[in-house]
Amino acid sequence: MATAPPPAPCTAEDEEPPSMAPHVPREHREQHGKDAPPGFIPPMAAEDVAAVEAVLGYDFADKSLVELALTHGSFYYPYRPGDTYERLEYLGDGVLTCLMSREVFRTYRTLPPGPLTRLRAANVDTEKLARVAVLRGLHRFLRHKAPQLEGQIHVFIEEMCKYPVHSNGLLDPPKVLSDIVESLIGAIYFDSNFDQEEVWRVFRNLADPLISLETLGKHPVSELFEFCQKTRRGVKIMKDEWDKNLKVEVLIDGELVGSATYAQKKEIAQNRAAKAALDKLKETLGQTESELAPAHVSEPFDELDIPGTLNTNAS
Amino acid sequence: MATAPPPAPCTAEDEEPPSMAPHVPREHREQHGKDAPPGFIPPMAAEDVAAVEAVLGYDFADKSLVELALTHGSFYYPYRPGDTYERLEYLGDGVLTCLMSREVFRTYRTLPPGPLTRLRAANVDTEKLARVAVLRGLHRFLRHKAPQLEGQIHVFIEEMCKYPVHSNGLLDPPKVLSDIVESLIGAIYFDSNFDQEEVWRVFRNLADPLISLETLGKHPVSELFEFCQKTRRGVKIMKDEWDKNLKVEVLIDGELVGSATYAQKKEIAQNRAAKAALDKLKETLGQTESELAPAHVSEPFDELDIPGTLNTNAS
């Protein structure tokens, strides 16, 4: 069985980002001839199925599961719920939760549940799985007919290259990308007669490197509050409720230090504003990030919980 | 291996509720003599470990896991994080999520993810697992030193007897009860070298009968809104923000029809008020519950999502 190929380059400025060349599924290339009946939707080509299997390093007994796991709800009109990846995604989500729980439980023998949960989440959240989809090229096999998805995926790939590692809330990955990783994992779980070791072998390769306690970054809002607490600064995160662009501003001791806009999601705007403020503060202080926010194993973890509300004062 | 005993009686008025006689662990009975050094905390007695194993129908290779899975954070002073059930609870939560996902995925071959998720949740939520703990008598082996827990468990057992089946949000079970079911499940997963089939065998027996699509009840708030929509009534759920007792009132076409107070949790008060209103409406209409709210397989399920806010108008 083939193993997963190495991640696409996305770590150095002089390297190329993952290919955005549209993948034309073989079915479209070969079967759009005059012979096909009107409305005929050909199955995924055997060559593409094999390519996906090679990426996964898993040989499906039931090859039709590959097609199912990669078929978005928009692919058929009218909607055919039984022919989309949704049920497999649900199953994959369940088994990944279990296997990542086990992994961090086994790896960190004395770590309390709080950080265990954060480690688990970071390794199976939307951003991590969307990164996996792109780095392994799985997004190229997505079957859909929702034109806006291509643009969203394109933007994500560009942004992803700015953040070679998990951004902790600065990116807004299209859910469809993490969906197809979960659905392919669900498909393997089902196809292997619910063999969790087989699922783990595949996921472990796909998701390599896993996020460890050492590489687990901090959430920018938590880090900002923590930093201001340590250095006795007053911090206020302000949002203009009337602004369509969802502008969020960070005031430190009453002075505007960072801001960001992200019209699609308030939370992303807030996280980016916090990150901008942190970068500014660190630059001003002439301190390096590593000095200010080391990820020590012995740190208390509860403080990393994200404040749920805006306009909070932590001085 | 012993199998799980039948559930304690809690279904008929003339039967006794589950025993509330305090279980004095054998260690306390036998080892509180003058020989014990000051501050000495004896391990769980072998007899009690065996009793728990009999309830679970599982024979632990490492018997110390039983004690660990039943030891609440309050048991040791100062707090000894490595000697409490928290990590096992985390692991058990993960494996139960996976196994219930698989169970409903396999049982309902065409059901969409929404109802699959609701079915999974209902079978592993705090109320379901707390019921399992009480019905199997596992709560009697809980090791803790938090006096308030006894009272909370006592209240829950009394309330539980009023609702022979899952109440869908009318009860407020102490989390400790569901915790110990998860931690015992986590302990079995760990002890069996992560054998999911062994875990499923134990849980399937413990949790019998599982909640099926046919027995899955509706959330009272959803049911109320649905009922009022069907019968073209205006419904308003009102909460007095200044009332310490968290009184919630339900107005139907401007008239007070149901109310409830529950100072500990706003959500429970809201659910109980909705249930009271529904009961009143049905009584008034002379219709039976089964006529009004049958759980048909073919029903749309999205409407069962709970409105997140109070003071909502659905007329």
TrEMBL record, chains A, B:
<keyword id="KW-0255">Endonuclease</keyword>
<dbReference type="InterPro" id="IPR014720">
    <property type="entry name" value="dsRBD_dom"/>
</dbReference>
<dbReference type="GO" id="GO:0016787">
    <property type="term" value="F:hydrolase activity"/>
</dbReference>
<keyword id="KW-0540">Nuclease</keyword>
<keyword id="KW-0378">Hydrolase</keyword>
<feature type="domain" description="DRBM">
    <location>
        <begin position="219"/>
        <end position="283"/>
    </location>
</feature>
<protein>
    <recommendedName>
        <fullName>RNase III domain-containing protein</fullName>
    </recommendedName>
</protein>
<dbReference type="GO" id="GO:0004519">
    <property type="term" value="F:endonuclease activity"/>
</dbReference>
<feature type="region of interest" description="Disordered">
    <location>
        <begin position="1"/>
        <end position="38"/>
    </location>
</feature>
<feature type="region of interest" description="Disordered">
    <location>
        <begin position="289"/>
        <end position="315"/>
    </location>
</feature>
<dbReference type="GO" id="GO:0003723">
    <property type="term" value="F:RNA binding"/>
</dbReference>
<feature type="compositionally biased region" description="Basic and acidic residues">
    <location>
        <begin position="24"/>
        <end position="35"/>
    </location>
</feature>
<dbReference type="InterPro" id="IPR000999">
    <property type="entry name" value="RNase_III_dom"/>
</dbReference>
<feature type="domain" description="RNase III">
    <location>
        <begin position="49"/>
        <end position="193"/>
    </location>
</feature>
<keyword id="KW-0694">RNA-binding</keyword>
<dbReference type="InterPro" id="IPR036389">
    <property type="entry name" value="RNase_III_sf"/>
</dbReference>
<dbReference type="Pfam" id="PF00035">
    <property type="entry name" value="dsrm"/>
</dbReference>
<keyword id="KW-0460">Magnesium</keyword>
<dbReference type="Pfam" id="PF00636">
    <property type="entry name" value="Ribonuclease_3"/>
</dbReference>
<dbReference type="GO" id="GO:0046872">
    <property type="term" value="F:metal ion binding"/>
</dbReference>
<keyword id="KW-0479">Metal-binding</keyword>
<keyword id="KW-0464">Manganese</keyword>
